[in-house]
Design goal:
With 391 residues, the protein is of the alpha/beta class. It is built from 15 helices and 15 strands. The chain is globular, with a radius of gyration of 21 Å. The chain binds pyridoxal-5'-phosphate. Pyridoxal-5'-phosphate (PLP) binds next to helix 5. Its EC number is 4.4.1.13.
Length: 391
């Protein structure tokens, strides 16, 4: 059966980072891009139509926050996550990483400590160190096929300077969807040590069958009061270029401080087209998302089967969510740098080299599967050719 996701537009020559910057960044030629986290798919037609209508009006002046956008976000959270949020609790931001950066800026002082759990989305490192805060790492524990958080180690690294835990939930790049039990245990420590939790939940809509995303703020009243949740429709509906995101801050004092900070820094404006896209995506994009999720899970299965059959030295870490697949390449016995060169020169393939997610990621590669099955096949065939040449 064919799917709308089998058909993709040619993105080359469209100022796409994924397609047009790849050769330069990876120092190769005609590389097949399965790296940066955006999709090769068009956004849902309902979103495109809403944007076209907005563009048709031809006026792009300053927008004002609208109740209809609030209500689209609220209904989406309720429908998908059973999370009831007041419109007042929403604070719009122009990107999740910029929001995290501003939260750290506002709620810590230089020298304060912020904890991250590598291997993790690489801006988590610089978003802390660029502001002269101390980066504290609590690496995930990997048992050869599964990742978990190291709560004992976490306790041991917290001291009076530790102010924030920056959580990635679901976790990019390892594909974990944290269970309620895991999150509750983590929450206990955060409460005991009075940590503010930034919960980056940008991947929360991309969850596989058998798993459930639990928003950190919904774990308990205490967590609700100490969590700032960062979300966006950008990963879910391929809208990253519109730089539209939001935070959910239930604690009124934290919210007031953050809003005042954004105003003082002149960061309280938002993209009018992004708001239109977000409203349409949340109101009308659910069927598209469900179709995407089925297609994506088939992509994952396809890659697993292919790799198991043809490239047994590479191990697929079973993802529970996200469209990013984490590949354990330890048995190839190459350093991250050697593997990157090999992939570029021999496979003509651009994956995200695991080392960028922290030293724990050294033997891994991350593969973006938000693309057509044909595109997945192309990437795998290129990889196999290089793999076969190793023998
Ligand atoms: C965990 C995580 N947070 C944030 C982002 C980027 O968010 P934004 O483009 O809104 O800054 C990504 C993109 O891949 C991500 O994986």
């Amino acid at each position: 059966m064919t799917s709308r996701f089998d058909h993709v537009e040619n993105r080359k020559g469209t100022n796409s980072m994924k397609w047009d910057a790849v050769d330069k960044l990876y120092e190769g030629e005609d590389l097949w891009p399965m790296w940066v986290a955006d999709m090769d798919f068009s956004a849902p037609p309902e979103v495109i139509k809403a944007i076209q209508e907005e563009v048709g009006r031809g006026i792009f002046g300053y927008p004002v926050r609208s109740a209809s956008v609030d209500s689209a976000v609220q209904s989406w959270l309720k429908k998908r996550l059973s999370w009831e949020v007041d419109a007042d609790e929403l604070v719009y931001t122009s990107g999740v990483v910029p929001a995290i950066s501003q939260i750290i800026n506002r709620f810590t002082e230089p020298g304060d400590k912020v904890i991250i759990q590598p291997p993790v989305y690489y801006p988590f490192f610089n978003v802390v160190t660029n502001q002269d805060r101390q980066l504290i790492e609590n690496p995930l524990v990997f048992d050869g096929c599964h990742y978990r958080m190291d709560l004992e180690h976490l306790r041991s690294v917290i001291d009076h300077k530790t102010k924030i835990l920056l959580l990635c939930s679901p976790h990019n790049p390892v594909g974990r969807v944290w269970t309620e039990e895991e999150l509750q245990k983590l929450a206990e420590i955060c409460i005991e040590h009075d940590l503010l939790v930034i919960s980056d939940e940008i991947h929360c809509d991309i969850i596989f069958k058998g798993h459930q995303h639990i928003p950190t703020a919904t774990l308990s009243e205490e967590m609700k009061q100490r969590t700032i949740t960062c979300m966006a429709p950008s990963k879910t509906f391929n809208l990253a270029g519109l730089q539209t995101s939001y935070t959910i801050i239930s604690n009124p004092a934290l919210r007031r401080k953050f809003k005042n900070h954004l105003s003082r820094e002149f960061l309280n404006m938002f993209n009018s087209i992004g708001a239109v896209a977000m409203e349409a995506a949340y109101n009308e994009g659910e069927a598209w998302l469900e179709e995407f999720l089925s297609y994506l899970q088939e992509n994952v299965q396809f890659v697993k089967t292919y790799i198991e059959e043809h490239m047994p030295k590479i191990k697929v870490i079973q993802p529970e969510g996200t469209y990013l697949l984490w590949l354990d390449c330890s048995d190839l016995a190459m350093t991250a740098q050697e593997r990157k060169k090999w992939l570029t020169a021999q496979a003509k393939l651009a994956l995200s080299n695991g080392i960028v997610f922290g030293k724990e990621g050294e033997p891994f590669e991350r593969m973006n599967l938000a693309c057509s099955r044909d595109s997945v096949k192309e990437g795998l065939e290129r990889l196999k050719k290089a793999y076969d040449s190793l023998k």
